[in-house]
From TrEMBL:
It comes from the Eukaryota. One of its GO terms (biological process) is canonical Wnt signaling pathway. The gene is Dixdc1. This is DIXC1 protein. It comes from Nicator chloris. Residues 38-128 form a coiled coil. Signal peptide: none annotated. Keywords: Coiled coil. The keyword Chloroplast does not apply.
Length: 132
């Protein structure tokens, strides 16, 4: 049974493509596999680090763009407030001028009535004087 077991183990090793003749060869083979795994992990770590660095750079760039846009937005808000203030001042001046124009129109109407009244009085006086 021992011989048969060894025979099947050897056959299984041969089928797997691993030819191990001694325990040292087995350790050597295992070290090679571990080195390959470590190398693969290092490559993945390097790729991950490069990806992380790229994402960091993109983040910094986006942050700079956001700050620039916020600065522009603040400037636009400031300009808009100034324009609103100027517009309010001009609206106040326009309202005052319209009020003055309205008062002037009322005064003009009053003066025209007064002039018509005085012309009528003058006409009456002239008529009386002509009759006398």
């Amino acid at each position: 049974l021992q011989k048969e077991l060894l025979k099947y183990k050897q056959e299984a090793r041969n089928l797997q493509g691993i030819k191990i003749t001694s325990p040292q060869d087995a350790l050597q083979q295992r070290l090679i596999q571990q080195d390959a795994s470590v190398l693969q992990l290092k490559q993945e770590l390097l790729r991950a680090s490069m990806d992380k660095e790229e994402l960091h750079n993109q983040n910094v760039d986006l942050q700079r763009k956001v700050e620039e846009r916020n600065r522009l937005l603040a400037e636009y808000k400031k300009e808009l407030c100034q324009k609103d203030r100027h517009l309010q001042q001009h609206q106040t001046k326009l309202d005052e001028m319209l009020r003055q124009l309205s008062e002037a129109s009322y005064q003009q109407v009053d003066l025209e009535r007064e002039l018509e009244h005085k012309e009528a009085l003058l006409a009456q006086c002239m008529k009386r004087e002509a009759e006398e």
